[in-house]
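[job 4471] stage=fold_predict status=RUNNING
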Amino acid sequence: MRVLVIEDDREAAGFLQRALKESGHTAELAYDGEIGLAMAREDDFDVLIVDRMLPKRDGLSVIRTLRDEGDQTPVLILSALGEVDDRVKGLRAGGDDYLTKPYAYSELLARVEALARRTVPEEHMTRLVVGDLVLDRLSHRVSRNGQPIQLQPREYRLLEYLMKHAGQVVTRTMLLENVWDYHFDPQTNVIDVHVSRLRGKIDKNFDRPLLQTVRGAGYVIRDQAE
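[job 4471] inference complete, writing structure tokens
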């Protein structure tokens, strides 16, 4: 299990990282809300542990932003604020669970593992949907508004990866590593060419575009109407 810990108390964050590793998990750290948000956007994690009181951007703002972008990664909120109203605000902001400080590590671990079990593994998701665009991972068929779309194998892999991360900005590095299996930059326009071809097939002749370029960041697929 991969966990992102967003906690400004470096000693507490370090303890959590060590404890999670000793339990057989991988943990990465962010010490403020802006860095935590960027890391959550850039990579895939099974669970996020988010402190509520963070510098630069508070924890609830981080969670709301991720939810608004379509990121449904389970979130455990940590906070010294333990009143009922505080817990309600945390859950309404998009948190999945709320744990009050101080806490027992055994309870935190049990809650994190329970959250991870709720998430349907990607390999078991046989159908990806963004708006009226549908990708069937069993048959490798793609359609939009009921109309079949024919894709080349690389175009299919590109679309599948984008749809698995619907609502999230996908960087060029992420595409090179996960679609082309490159762990270096080949210094070519291969991504631009394939994105252009894919956009022509899934967006052309339809009423609204789904595949968008985020200048200086990468690409995102989402339905603006939702």
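[job 4471] summary: The longest helix spans residues 105-118.
[job 4471] exit 0
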